[in-house]
Each structure stands twice: as C-alpha cells, then as structure tokens.
Design goal:
Mean pLDDT: 97
Pathway: Cofactor biosynthesis; coenzyme A biosynthesis; CoA from (R)-pantothenate: step 5/5
Bound molecules: dephospho coenzyme A, adenosine-5'-triphosphate
Low-confidence stretches: none
Largest sheet: 5 strands, parallel
Radius of gyration: 17 Å
Number of domains: 1
Keywords: ATP-binding, Coenzyme A biosynthesis, Cytoplasm, Kinase, Nucleotide-binding, Transferase
Pfam families: CoaE
Family: Belongs to the CoaE family.
Main location: cytoplasm
Order of helices and strands: EHEHHEEHHEEHHHEH
Number of helices: 9
Shape: globular
C-alpha cells in the first residue's frame, strides 16, 4: 500500500483535499478528526486531559474551545497537551493503516498538520502540501465560528511557515483556485504517485 502524507497550515484546505483523494478511491485518515474523537465522552484522552487541565472537561468530554483558551499562547501548556495527545493519535493512525492494508487499499492518504514539524516525512512514499495565498488563508479561517485573530495567530506560531513546507513537499496542491481546478491537481498528483509507486 502506497503511503501519502498530506499537510498544510491552518485553513489551507487539507480536509477538503483529503475528501477529494477519498473520491478518487484512496483510503483516508485525518489527524485533527482523530484528536476530536479522542476528546469525546469516553474518548481515551479525556482522563489524561482532565488530570492536566481539570477545568476544560465538561460532562465527560473535552471542551475544545476552553482547552484552546487554556493552552494557546502558553508554550509549556501546549507541550504538555501534545505529550498527552500525540501518542494516542499515533495509535489511532496505526489502527487505520492496518485496517486499510487489510482491506487491500492501493493507497492511503494521511492528513497530518505537523508532518514536517515532527520530521515524519520518512514514513511516507510521497508528501503533499496544500497551499494558498496568506490573505485567502486568513479570510477562510476568520470566517469560522469561534475563531479570532488572536487564536489564528497563536496557532500559526505553532506551525512551520507555508514557504518552508512548500520547499519540503514532493507535490504542492494550490487551494487558492476554484474547487474544480484544485480537484484537477489532486487527480494529476494522485495519478503520478500511483504510476511511480505501484509495483508491476
Ligand atoms: C488546540 C485545540 C484545543 C483547538 O481545537 P479546535 O477545535 O478549536 O481547532 P482544531 O482542532 O480544528 O485545530 C485548528 C487548527 O490548529 C491546528 N493545530 C491544533 N493543535 C496544534 C498544535 N499543537 N500545533 C500546531 N497546529 C495545531 C490544527 O491542525 C488545525 O489546523 C486542539 O487543536 C488541540 O487539542 N490540539 C492539540 C493536539 C494537536 O497537536 N493537534 C494537531 C495535530 S495532531
Ligand atoms: N480550491 C479550494 N481548495 C480547498 N479548499 C477550498 C478551495 N476553495 C475554497 N475552499 C474552502 O476553504 C476551506 C478550507 O478548509 P479546510 O477545512 O479544508 O482546511 P484545513 O486545512 O483542513 O483546516 P484546518 O487546518 O483548520 O484543519 C473550506 O471551507 C473549503 O470549502
């Protein structure tokens, strides 16, 4: 099974492009969605988060807005949170890969926001970054409910700059275009990867 790592900064279009890969037949997994599942009632992260940040757990689930308020802008708190969450996300990712392999998928695309920050590119046959102009990114993110300029800036600070990600990736998908144009680029990149890595 070919492993493709998809990344990009906040609001650049990772989830949207991941869905396009799914439409083209790839098995797909999204790290942010895995985090959100871990925070739901009964989720594996809840007891650990409750111990570290008791005020952010309500009715047995992590309140993400409260957690964001508590940790963003506080480097130590972010480190503590990541130390809890990342190993659990890793387990979820491995379970996905095993299931996709078992199901006979030709390729798996994994949406990993911190792929280059955590030097994970070695686990993938190919890496892709989604990228759009900074003003497009900012407008998209600020249009989301519960988002503020401060929260956007605090998250951006935790991420490698877009220009650096573009240099590291094997493929760049432009998401500052129409959805159809972006879909065309996804189609082309996927065909190229399948051609390069499918064993004869
Ligand atoms: C900070 C939290 C509470 C904000 O939750 P919220 O629902 O408001 O936003 P969401 O999860 O959709 O994330 C918004 C954007 O921030 C990015 N982001 C989130 N955490 C981080 C981080 N630690 N470093 C860099 N970027 C991050 C996401 O990839 C996404 O682009 C939440 O993202 C979280 O618990 N993060 C820690 C876990 C983590 O490291 N996730 C990143 C990928 S595994
Ligand atoms: N050409 C395009 N490609 C991708 N997304 C686009 C495009 N045009 C408009 N959009 C919109 O931009 C938004 C991108 O959001 P999306 O959730 O996919 O980004 P993300 O990188 O996954 O965000 P986050 O980092 O917060 O998880 C969506 O609302 C999408 O519809």
């Amino acid at each position: 099974m070919i492993r493709i790592g998809l990344t990009g900064s906040i609001g650049m279009g990772k989830s949207t492009v991941l869905d396009m890969f799914a439409d083209f037949g790839a098995a797909t997994w999204n790290a942010d969605d895995a985090v959100h599942r871990l925070y739901e009632k009964g989720g594996a992260a809840v007891p650990f988060i409750e111990k570290a940040f008791p005020e952010v757990v309500k009715d047995g689930a992590v309140d993400r807005a409260e957690l964001a308020k508590r940790v963003l802008g506080d480097a130590e708190a972010v480190k503590k949170l990541e130390a809890i969450v990342h190993p659990l996300v890793g387990e979820d990712r491995e379970a996905f890969l095993n299931a996709a392999e078992k199901a006979g998928a030709d390729a798996a695309v994994l949406d990993i926001p911190l792929l280059f920050e955590n030097a994970s590119e070695k686990f993938f046959d190919a890496t892709i970054v989604v990228s759009a102009p900074a003003d497009v990114q900012k407008n998209r993110v600020l249009a989301r409910p519960g988002m503020s300029e401060e929260k956007f800036e605090a998250i951006l600070k935790l991420q490698m700059p877009d220009a650096e990600k573009r240099q590291k990736a094997d493929y760049i998908i432009d998401t500052g275009l129409t959805l159809d144009e972006t879909r065309g680029q996804v189609d082309a990149a996927y065909a190229d990867i399948l051609r390069k890595f499918t064993k004869a």
